[in-house]
């Protein structure tokens, strides 16, 4: 991590030690060479991760600039304020080879659909990127280099999607229980702009999913909103109390790769989709006050380029039939809530709403971090003074929890 002012640090690179299988009792020195690292910064922090634990190792102050080697590739540090970008960059190296392989397989099996000449050209372009990837030193991870190769693959995939669908972006109904993997491609779908049909009991929680594919060579800003709800006579539906729109973030899953998980409460906020990227929205339906009957609405997608050029709207219809049977809401089902919703860059502006959304998902055990536990902080005379402010804030924020789970760390 490098810094110019000793306060704001940015991640420049990661080194991986692949020397596995050694006993922890054997002490072995490690030497890392920074031959290909050239970043601006006076202060350098080095962190070591062992057995799942991060700890500070050393801090270096650079007194004098070394002579510049023009053959060294410039590395731009990555800002650590974007949670999603960090997750994506950390996992992207292991996924890139698989993504290239799956894209080539998809193109080969769909030559008749997209054209043989076009398909062969894209395969050649993918092989060229694969050759560049194979030359990378995979012990040293340069974020900009991996990101650049990933972007190249994304643009090729966007051209393939464009050839298949003929649109700047498409919205396709999907089964929320089916895994959406970053490396997969779906070139044939008859459900573009189709209809989702749901059946549920009164007071039941149900979800639908929509895959959004960016078929253009530009990054797109997209938002989703719901139209007015058609309901049985005499019933007025409050959309804010009935629907939640959540967006999938790609997370690493063991033996599967990057898997889209609906982690972000999105609603009508804009989100960015890179060229060739597939993202997934979950539309959740839950309103215990709605009576039996047939309801209908539409999910309307609005998109624009980063230069604010508007694109044509897309629409997916959502129909749901509520039966006369009532779902027992007060069931004894508990699961864990993520302990740090307030630190996420994507939820910090609406933490309370996010917590309520989690409560509806039966996630009603809150895990409290030890930093929030009110241990004595200082002494006045012979009496200890306990600061309850963090603890009070935690309880207030997680008021929907039924139980609280505390971990005490006495190792120190």
Strand-helix topology:
Blueprint: E1 2-3, E2 13-15, E3 43-50, E4 53-61, H1 83-109, H2 111-114, H3 116-134, E5 140-142, H4 143-165, E6 169-174, E7 195-202, E8 206-214, E9 220-226, H5 239-242, E10 243-253, E11 257-265, E12 271-273, E13 278-285, E14 293-305, E15 314-326, E16 336-337, H6 351-360, E17 365-368, E18 376-380, E19 383-386, H7 389-397, E20 403-406
Parallel strand pairs: 7-15, 16-17, 17-20
Antiparallel strand pairs: 1-3, 2-5, 3-4, 6-8, 8-13, 9-12, 9-14, 10-11, 10-13, 14-15, 18-19
Q: Can you give a write-up of this model?
A:
It is a single chain. The chain has helices spanning 83-109, 111-114, 116-134, 143-165, 239-242, 351-360, 389-397; strands at residues 2-3, 13-15, 43-50, 53-61, 140-142, 169-174, 195-202, 206-214, 220-226, 243-253, 257-265, 271-273, 278-285, 293-305, 314-326, 336-337, 365-368, 376-380, 383-386, 403-406. It folds into 4 domains: 2-61; 83-165; 169-326, Immunoglobulins (Immunoglobulin-like); 336-406, no CATH class. The longest helix has 27 residues, at 83-109. The chain is α+β, with helices and mostly antiparallel strands and 412 residues long. Helix 1 packs across helix 3, helix 1 crosses helix 4 (143-165) and helix 3 (116-134) runs antiparallel to helix 4 (143-165). The strands form 6 sheets. It has a 5-stranded antiparallel β-sheet with strand order 6-8-13-10-11. Strands 7-15-14-9-12 form a 5-stranded mixed β-sheet, with no helix packed on it. A 3-stranded antiparallel β-sheet has the order 1-3-4, with no helix packed on it. The protein is flat, with a radius of gyration of 25 Å. It contains 7 helices and 20 strands.
């Amino acid at each position: 991590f490098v810094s110019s002012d000793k306060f704001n640090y940015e991640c420049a690179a990661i080194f991986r030690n692949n020397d596995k299988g050694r006993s922890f009792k054997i002490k072995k020195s490690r030497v890392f060479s920074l031959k290909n690292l050239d970043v601006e910064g006076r202060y350098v922090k080095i962190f070591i991760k062992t057995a799942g634990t991060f700890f500070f190792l050393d801090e270096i102050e650079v007194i004098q600039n070394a002579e510049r080697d023009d053959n060294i590739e410039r590395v731009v540090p990555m800002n650590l304020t974007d949670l999603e970008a960090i997750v994506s960059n950390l996992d992207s190296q292991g996924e890139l080879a698989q993504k290239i392989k799956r894209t080539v397989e998809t193109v080969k099996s769909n030559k008749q659909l997209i054209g043989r000449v076009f398909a062969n050209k894209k395969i050649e372009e993918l092989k060229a990127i694969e050759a560049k990837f194979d030359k990378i030193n995979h012990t040293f991870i340069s974020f900009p280099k991996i990101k650049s190769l990933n972007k190249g693959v994304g643009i090729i995939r966007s051209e393939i999607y464009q050839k298949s669908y003929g649109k700047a972006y498409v919205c396709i109904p999907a089964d929320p229980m089916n895994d959406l993997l970053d490396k997969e491609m779906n070139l044939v779908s008859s459900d573009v702009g189709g209809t989702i049909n749901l059946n549920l009991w009164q007071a039941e929680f149900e979800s639908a999913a929509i895959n959004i594919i960016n078929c253009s060579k530009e990054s797109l800003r997209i938002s989703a909103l719901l139209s007015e709800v058609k309901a049985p006579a005499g019933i007025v539906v409050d959309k804010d109390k009935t629907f939640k729109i959540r967006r999938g973030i790609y997370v690493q899953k063991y033996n599967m790769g990057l898997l889209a998980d609906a982690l972000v409460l999105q609603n009508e906020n804009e989100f960015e989709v890179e060229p060739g990227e597939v993202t997934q929205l979950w539309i959740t339906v839950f309103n215990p006050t709605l009576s039996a009957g047939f309801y209908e609405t539409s999910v309307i997608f609005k998109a624009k380029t980063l230069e604010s050029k508007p694109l044509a709207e897309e629409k997916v219809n959502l129909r749901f039939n509520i039966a006369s049977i009532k779902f027992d809401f007060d069931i004894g089902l508990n699961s864990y809530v993520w302990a740090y919703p307030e630190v996420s860059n994507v939820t910090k502006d609406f933490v309370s709403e996010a917590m309520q959304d989690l409560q509806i998902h039966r996630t009603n055990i809150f895990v409290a971090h030890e930093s929030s536990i009110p241990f004595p902080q200082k002494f006045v005379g012979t009496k200890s003074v306990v600061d309850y402010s963090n603890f009070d804030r935690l309880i207030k924020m997680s008021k929907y929890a039924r139980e609280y789970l505390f971990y005490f760390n006495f190792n120190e």
